[in-house]
Amino acid sequence: MSRRLGAQELIDRVLDAGSWVSWDAEADEPAEPGSAYAAELAAARARAGTDESIITGRGTVSGRPVAVVASEFGFLGGSMGRAASARLHDAVRRATREGLPLVAAPCSGGTRMQEGTPAFLGMVKVAAAITAHRGAGLPYLVYLRHPTTGGVFASWGSLGHFTAAEPGALVGFLGPRVFEALHGRPFPEGVQTAENLLAHGLLDAVIEVDDLAQVASQVLDVLMAPREVVPVPPGLPLEDLGTADAWESVERSRRPDRPGVRDLLRRAADVVIPLSGTAQGEVDDTMLLCLARFGTTSCVVLGQDRRHQSGTTSLGPAGLREARRGMSLARELGLPLVSVIDTAGAELSRAAEEGGLAGEIARCLAELVVLEAPTLCLMLGEGAGGGALALLPADRVVAAEHSWLSPLPPEGAAAILHRDVGRAAEVAAAQRVSTRDLLDLGVVDRVVAEPADAGQDAEVFCDRLALVLQHELAVLVRVDPRDRLRDRLERYARLG
Ligand SMILES: CC(C)(COP(=O)(O)OP(=O)(O)OC[C@H]1O[C@@H](n2cnc3c(N)ncnc32)[C@H](O)[C@@H]1OP(=O)(O)O)[C@@H](O)C(=O)NCCC(=O)NCCSC(=O)CC(=O)O
């Protein structure tokens, strides 16, 4: 881990040179004059060079205005007393009033022990101010520095739309030394580290301080972009679809070299910012969640990733919870949502049942169908069962020619109907799973013709889909939100 940076040093490394303007008035004096605490505060001020454990203000990152709040660890371990919480609270509210995105860089031992319970309660107003900031559709980015603990991690450190941490940083709830003193044994090694939290879906990235400006500016470019209405790029001219039957499509969709959501993003998106996990302690690689920009339109993408659904891994409840994180991001930030269906079916296991798979499918359907944000579903390949349907109910549904949608894998349906998986092709046709049928049924709005071999011609396949995506997104964001939602609800009321 790099040397611990002071608050001002960090700000100078991240913001454009000369852009920093402090918002801090003189901090309140929380200590009784002449008390031991007053002496500690005076010593902390002299040592840290700041008047409190937090500094706030505004500046620019790559030219974009941002509000910044940063802890000063040199001031009583970055701990939060009443004056620090009041300063943070005021800065968050000012950022909201001024319509500025907010970047927070905590580094703290949590609530200031010298001030006890009255200071502890400051976590509540800070959480309330951040909720109001997010509620105003403004981004909140968090960079957890070494060390971030206690009530700071448990309030403003854990409420980001996007959360990154410093490599090797100690990030945890109770400080390890406090744990050992209380319990007489050391806290397990390697748990309270940035890297471990990343692996558990609690962080989106671990990045060096020197990369923070670039990452923050990319994230903000994507998050702040949709407020501009962009010209609609030309759509793809309608091309003749081939004559493949449903079963041929099923077989084509299962070819190992068929492009998946990652290939599509690599080729089609101008910017991709991966997010990791649910932000609540789960990761599922079968669901890809990211912020992306296609042409000039930014969106949240959640996509079933075929590369991670092979052999023993399939889409589980955590993947669907990750999808719901994407839905709330889109709702809060007013970003369009692109959902990508490509699954051979959700996980069938004890863990999935006990983890609430069916409930997660229900919650995805329920949230997606009424989501305020513009929504676009792309059927990319396989589309088996509730795990696929969970990402379907969008304003517009675009399908690659050989994608399909069915209540079970066709072999499963054949087993139910005929006790014979060998009759899967016949059942696929009868169940109307092909895109031709889905177009007739009004499930799909547009089918994109595929090259003769999507695996061989991955570029053509992805480029065509990208053109359609860009076009559809640009059209969608122009529609009045009330009309869009009403049309969507009417559409899904007609289906099924
Ligand atoms: C954060 C740390 C891991 C950092 O360890 P380091 O060895 O790097 O640094 P350190 O311990 O020497 O700390 C530097 C200085 O900051 C002071 N310091 C640290 N945390 C403090 C706090 N919460 N209140 C008041 N002072 C604090 C230390 O006493 C020390 O002062 P000096 O230099 O004078 O010796 C450790 O300080 C720590 O465990 N702090 C407590 C973390 C914690 O459990 N917080 C919960 C608080 S309750 C809370 O926040 C509410 C909640 O949990 O919900």
From TrEMBL:
CC per GO annotation: acetyl-CoA carboxylase complex
Residues of the CoA carboxyltransferase N-terminal domain: 1-238
Recorded GO MF terms: acetyl-CoA carboxylase activity; transferase activity
Pfam families: Carboxyl_trans
Coiled coil: none
All copies of domain CoA carboxyltransferase C-terminal, residue ranges: 233-471
UniProt cross-references to InterPro entries, sorted A to Z: AcCoA_carboxyl_beta, Acetyl_CoA_COase_Trfase_b_su, ClpP/crotonase-like_dom_sf, COA_CT_C, COA_CT_N
A biological process from GO: fatty acid biosynthetic process
Top-rank taxon: Bacteria
Keywords assigned by UniProt, alphabetized: Transferase
SUPFAM superfamilies xref list: ClpP/crotonase
PANTHER family (UniProt xref): ACETYL-COENZYME A CARBOXYLASE CARBOXYL TRANSFERASE SUBUNIT BETA, CHLOROPLASTIC
Protein name (Swiss-Prot/TrEMBL): Acetyl-CoA carboxylase
Source organism: Marmoricola endophyticus
